[in-house]
Amino acid sequence: LVIVETLILFLLLFFAGWLRFGSTLAGPIWPRATLFSVSMAGSMLAFGLYSARQRARSLGILIRVAAAVAAGSVVTAIASYAIPDLSIGRAVLLLAALSAVVVLSAFRLVFSRVMDDAVAKRRVLVYGCGRRAMSIASLRRRSDRRGFVVVGYIGPDGEEEFIPAGNTLRLQGTLLMTCRQLNVDEVVVAMEDRRRGFPILDLLECRMDGVEVTELLTFLERETGRVRLDVLDPSWMIFGTGFRRDPLRIFSSRALDLTASLLILLVSLPVIALAALAIKLEDGLRAPVFYKQERVGMANVPFDVLKFRSMRMDAEVDGKAQWAQKRDPRITRVGAVIRKLRIDELPQILNVLRGDMSFVGPRPERPQFVAELSERIPYYVQRHCVKPGITGWAQLCYPYGSSERDALEKLQYDLYYIKNNSLLFDLAILVQTAEVVFMGQGAR
After folding, report:
1. pTM of the complete model
2. Which of 84, 199, 360, 417 has the CA that lies 20 to 30 A from 427?
3. What is the pLDDT of residue 444?
4. For residue 63, what are the contacts with CB-CB under 8 A and spacing of at least 6?
5. Which residues contact 229 (CB under 8 A, 6 or more apart)?
């Protein structure tokens, strides 16, 4: 999708030049077409249009396409103004942008229809029909099932069946013969008890024949973007890939934190000044603009997080920690706006510069909540093996958490990030955070 749409955008600038002048622009056009297409593709990435977990319907996709093209046009205009050799011209840029909205919207509608069919999906055979196999059958979100289609479930001898009878299959000879007959691309092992009747030779035969063999938790992690706690085995975390913090990764993380913090601080200074002024005007000149709150950081070390004050000064007059709720009456009028736009988070840049936080990571929680959740949710303390972040994978994939169940759901995404964290993953999260800010997702 990225390759095809970038190529479309590249060609659209040639088309706009021809439409405007009846010929190509003066000078080589391919550098300008490259600038236009890359700016647009980056903007579409920022608006979540290349996210495998994008759940917006057709109208939402069209709105995102239009917004992304508008943002990409601004980036292209600034770059062409700064570099005269890449100048495109307002008329050509406008024609190219309007053409991009029409062509990309039409292409997206066609693409979504094709992807909703089984054309580009992996054909998966699940070996197991018990409770563990139900974790695949119970996937309901379209984004979680976008990459595969289940051709059936095969139950090992003696395993209690939880899968509806119409979805179970019988072996047609050997496991490999069954895979060939059903044109299977991947076998997912979801047995309840591997100590009894594990088909190691059959699975090895499938693997040698080119059929992928995948463990259940690894399959769910890949398809859903989270680590499922209901089927998690500690040995998978100990012996599996990921969950590493080598010196190079620590250095790249800190370098990204410092670079992003200084750049965003420089760009957002006017916004910070306006937010501080608005808080003062609403609550009085003596009212505090910022507030500090103790949070739990890396290795369970507490620190004070800094934020713009968005609630009344007596929001927790009794000192008892409370989850923020929808339409929380404690939130001020200015607070509602800065929370919606995530402006209240900007002072945390100072926490990043001090090293208490990273730009990307699990959200830091208050000690009271951490103590309660650690007792009730398994593996909750493992989220503190990395620095907390201003934004993160859980914030992109799950709305604002305000309950124990939300904390459990977000933990699954946090563990996925901790397992797979890398510099490229951090950059992708930072870019996609723009969609959360511009579309107002998850704010409370």
Report:
1. 0.78
2. 84
3. 45
4. none
5. 377, 378, 379, 408, 411, 412, 415
Between CA 275 and CA 185 the distance in angstroms is 54
- CA separation for the pair 133, 190 (Å, rounded): 5
At 37, list the tokens: 């297409």
Which tokens go with 133?
Answer: 């196999």
Residues 147-164 have pLDDT tens digits of 899 999 998 888 888 998
Q: What is the pLDDT of residues 68-104, one digit of tens each?
A: 999 899 999 998 888 888 888 888 899 999 999 999 9
Question: Rounded distance, CA 90 to CA 77, Å?
Answer: 8
Task: Please check whether residue 388 is in contact with residue 364, taking contact to mean a CB–CB distance below 8 angstroms.
Answer: yes
Q: How many degrees, rounded to 5, is the angle at CA 117 between CA 114 and CA 123?
A: 125
Asked whether the beta carbons of 104 and 47 are under 8 A apart, the reply is no
| Residues in contact with 423: Cβ distance below 8 Å, sequence separation at least 6, in sequence order | 249, 252, 253, 256
Distance CA 212, CA 206 (A): 7
How far is it, in rounded angstroms, from Cα 202 to Cα 198? 9
The C-alpha R_g of the chain, in whole angstroms, comes to: 25
Give 23's pLDDT tier (boundaries 50, 70, 90): low
Contacts of 373 (CB under 8 A, 6+ apart): 365, 380, 404, 407
Q: Which pairs from 395-399 meet CB under 8 Å and 24+ separation?
A: 395/363, 395/433, 395/436, 395/442, 396/51, 396/429, 396/432, 396/433, 396/435, 396/436, 397/53, 397/225, 397/226, 398/442, 399/441, 399/442
For strand 302-308 and strand 290-296, is the pairing parallel, antiparallel, or unpaired?
antiparallel
